[in-house]
Design brief:
About 55% of the residues are buried. By secondary structure, the chain is of the alpha+beta class. The longest helix has 17 residues. Helix content is about 30%, strand content about 15%. The strands form four sheets. Strands 1-3-2-15-14-13-12 form a seven-stranded antiparallel sheet, with helices on both faces. The chain is globular, with a radius of gyration of 19 Å.
Length: about 375
């Protein structure tokens, strides 16, 4: 069995055993954390931080978690809304006047948080993702693909720029700066959007699925009959592994962290707005994440989805996952967060790793609550 490092409550032993099994099956490396009541009951890691399996995954290894980053950007928006600085029912153009171009004056802030705005696809050069002003100007000029709020289509790359520019107009800070100063800094959480070069040595680069190379691209599930035709720019593994990607602020997809940092931050939403003695937002503000904005078939990913404010809704829990397998699941009723970060991609249709680890955590929770 693979060697697993870290600590865990014996009641939750199925979680580190689950990680070990994934590594035994061939995964390169990863980390898993489970927090209950804002405290870690599982904080483990194992495997390697490089495709050649020469560099061990350590306590401070971080990796690109792709769309799990969206949960960090959403939390920043919820904090501003809780402070009264951001009106979720306001038109995006109230904060970002240029965005009203091409008939987008009806798009509300809640629409961009819930993938119902109608701008799901990034259709510019990959290199433009690294230039905030160019990326946001491109999106401001684009027309909508549907009437805002009437349909949902996963805004895989665009959501971060849409939410992020609203936050920047309000605060004068980028999402990465706001996150660092208002969230991860106070909590001591090792998560970054816009990674400084000083952290490069800790990064586990993404490893493509078995049999694939770095030209492997992000792809959605087979779209349904009502799918919106896509002309989106294909994102490759080599793009996500580039220095330019690490330095850029792509608040939907370029976050770097590990399971511990993700679980710590998102525990604020599991625990009524506060974690580790730090209150990020009120209990009512935290609960807004679960306010359903859409339920039905997502036009882009071709599957039924329920969206809250910045998070996917799943039964009594909420959260999201990223390309390659990372995941966070938040359960306010159980005051529990489960997070998984890995450098090993698998083909999306066959990837149930995160779900398996979440189920293992619930097994431990049952024992804890007895």
């Amino acid at each position: 069995m693979a060697d697993i490092q870290g600590t865990y409550d014996d009641l939750f032993s199925a979680v580190p055993n689950g990680l070990a099994a994934l590594l035994d099956e061939g995964d390169v490396g990863g980390s898993v954390a489970v927090f209950v009541d804002g405290e870690p009951v599982v904080d483990v890691w194992g495997g390697y931080a490089d495709a050649g399996r020469t560099v061990p995954w350590t306590e401070d290894t971080i990796t690109n978690v792709y769309s799990t980053t969206k949960t960090m950007t959403a939390l920043c928006a919820l904090i501003l809304a809780d402070r009264g600085a951001l009106d979720l029912d306001a038109q995006v153009a109230r904060y970002w006047p240029e965005f009203a171009a091409a008939g987008k004056e009806k798009v509300l802030v809640r629409h961009v948080l819930s993938h119902t705005a109608g701008l799901p696809h990034w259709e510019g050069p990959v290199e433009e993702l690294y230039d905030w002003q160019a990326a946001t100007a491109r999106l401001a000029a684009r027309p909508l693909l549907w009437e805002p709020g009437t349909a949902a289509g996963y805004h895989s790359l665009t959501q971060g720029f849409l939410v992020g520019e609203v936050l920047r107009r309000i605060t004068g800070r980028t999402v990465g700066e706001f996150l660092a100063e208002e969230v991860t800094g106070p909590l001591g959480a090792d998560f970054h959007i816009g990674l400084p070069a000083a952290h490069d040595h800790r990064v586990a680069l993404t490893v493509p699925p078995p049999g694939r190379d770095e030209d492997y691209t992000a792809g959605a599930a087979s779209p349904g009959p009502d799918a919106t035709p896509a002309s989106a720019t294909a994102l490759r593994v080599r793009d996500g592994n580039s220095v330019a990607w690490r330095r850029a602020q792509i608040p939907a997809a370029s976050g770097f962290g590990n399971a511990r940092s993700i679980a710590l931050v998102q525990s604020a939403l599991a625990c009524g707005g506060a974690v580790g003695g730090v209150r990020l937002l009120s209990a009512a503000g935290a609960a807004r994440a679960t306010e359903e904005q859409f339920s039905g078939e997502d036009r882009v990913i071709g599957m039924t989805q329920r969206y809250g404010l910045g998070y996917g809704l799943f039964g009594t829990g909420f959260g999201w996952g990223g390309w390659g397998g990372s995941l966070v699941m938040i359960d306010p009723d159980a005051r529990m967060v489960v997070a998984y970060a890995t450098d090993q991609m698998r083909e999306p249709a066959q990837d149930t790793r995160g779900l398996g680890l979440v189920m293992a955590a619930y097994d431990g929770l049952q024992g804890l609550r007895r």
